[in-house]
């Protein structure tokens, strides 16, 4: 797909929101900030618009999209919301949780959104700008992360521009994303199953459900039912070496906690919330020709640390 679109940067004011909403309603591609990462939005009912998302990102068409809606009532118009989903929605929406639900018969969603599945992933984002945009547009908005497929996810409008300028119609600039990693994806079409760790810690879901979650096996590259299952994802140009206790010659250290010699530090005090918010922006900053290997300090594997380690593992995976 040649980069032949004029990409407008829209300010986060009433005018910018109205223009973004009108573009979405006209079948255009608009990147917008959520509390997790920037999404690349399109009208989820419009085949041509949704096809544009796949083309702009060079995304494999077997990888379905998340539909964004302003509230639970809007979700009910496209999906069957069962009792478990009701409880989780009451506890965690709006917020960084995506639920996989059965598609409603009456749903007018493009088949390209669900990649032909009988289920749909839905999310009610909390970021005020995303809320205002979804209410102004008043349509279901399909939105994957606003980056070329396989690359580092965007947490600033500038990241979106770097990756997709000329391929999309606008970016609504809302500054930095507060959470910094994608939403947690939970399949509730059967016993709740964690498809992707993310911005809502699994421990919070388990506490709300009162039971441990089923999880996917770590790694199923042939059957990607969630994005993280693709072998290589979220990847910078440099190689990554994880759990680095000692820095080797020629490496650039991405630190966590009070470690010496870090080029950048996710959180000098060892705060997982701060580290999550910094993760993708720091990987973007280290994505330069001078950096050949990024060594990353060990990150605790609980709470948000699980999502950080998941993304780092994908970023370190062999490239296809
Ligand atoms: O935080 C987020 O979730 C961001 C922001 C923009 O909302 N979006 C995001 O979208 O991360 P994306 O496309 O990068 O990841 C969504 C993943 C898909 O790759 C797909 O594997 C999974 O959700 N998914 C979508 N529909 C599904 C379904 N019906 N069943 C199982 N997994 C599904
Ligand atoms: Mg993504």
TrEMBL record:
It comes from the Bacteria. SUPFAM superfamilies: YrdC/RibB. InterPro entries: DHBP_synth_RibB-like_a/b_dom (IPR017945), Sua5-like_dom (IPR006070), Sua5/YwlC_C (IPR038385), Sua5_C (IPR005145), T(6)A37_SUA5 (IPR010923), TC-AMP_synthase_SUA5 (IPR050156). It catalyses: L-threonine + hydrogencarbonate + ATP = L-threonylcarbamoyladenylate + diphosphate + H2O. GO terms for molecular function: L-threonylcarbamoyladenylate synthase. Signal peptide: none annotated. Its EC number is 2.7.7.87. PROSITE patterns: YRDC (PS51163). Residues 14-200 form the YrdC-like domain. It is found in: Cytoplasm. Keywords: ATP-binding, Cytoplasm, Nucleotide-binding, Nucleotidyltransferase, Transferase, tRNA processing. Required for the formation of a threonylcarbamoyl group on adenosine at position 37 (t(6)A37) in tRNAs that read codons beginning with adenine. Belongs to the SUA5 family. This is Threonylcarbamoyl-AMP synthase. The lineage of its organism: Bacteria, Pseudomonadati, Pseudomonadota, Alphaproteobacteria, Rhodobacterales.
């Amino acid at each position: 797909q040649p980069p032949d679109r004029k990409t407008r940067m829209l300010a986060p004011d009433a005018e910018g929101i109205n223009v973004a909403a009108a573009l979405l309603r006209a079948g255009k591609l608009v990147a917008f900030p959520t509390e997790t990462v920037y999404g690349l939005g399109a009208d989820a009912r419009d085949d041509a618009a949704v096809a544009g998302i796949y083309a702009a990102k060079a995304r494999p068409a077997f990888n379905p999209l998340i539909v964004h809606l302003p509230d639970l009532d809007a979700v009910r118009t496209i999906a069957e919301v069962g009792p478990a989903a009701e409880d989780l929605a009451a506890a965690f929406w709006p917020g960084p949780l995506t639920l996989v639900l059965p598609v409603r018969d009456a749903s007018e969603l493009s088949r390209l959104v669900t990649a032909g599945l009988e289920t749909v992933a839905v999310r009610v984002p909390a970021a005020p700008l995303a809320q205002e945009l979804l209410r102004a547009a008043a349509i279901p908005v399909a939105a994957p992360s606003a980056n070329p497929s396989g690359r580092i996810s965007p947490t600033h409008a500038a990241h979106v521009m770097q990756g997709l300028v000329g391929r999309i119609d606008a970016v609504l600039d809302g500054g930095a994303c507060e959470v910094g990693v994608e939403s947690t994806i939970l399949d509730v079409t059967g016993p709740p199953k964690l498809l992707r760790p993310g911005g809502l810690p699994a421990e919070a879901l388990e506490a709300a459900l009162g039971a441990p979650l089923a999880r996917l096996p770590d790694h199923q590259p042939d059957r990607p039912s969630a994005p993280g299952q693709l072998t290589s994802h979220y990847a910078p140009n440099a190689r990554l070496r994880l759990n680095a206790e000692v820095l080797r010659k020629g490496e650039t250290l991405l630190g966590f906690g009070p470690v010496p010699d870090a080029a950048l530090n996710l959180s000098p005090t060892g705060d997982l919330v701060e580290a999550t918010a910094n993760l993708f922006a720091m990987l973007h900053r280290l994505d330069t020709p001078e950096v050949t290997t990024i060594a990353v300090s060990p990150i605790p594997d609980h709470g948000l640390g699980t999502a950080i380690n998941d993304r780092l593992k994908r970023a370190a995976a062999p490239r296809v």
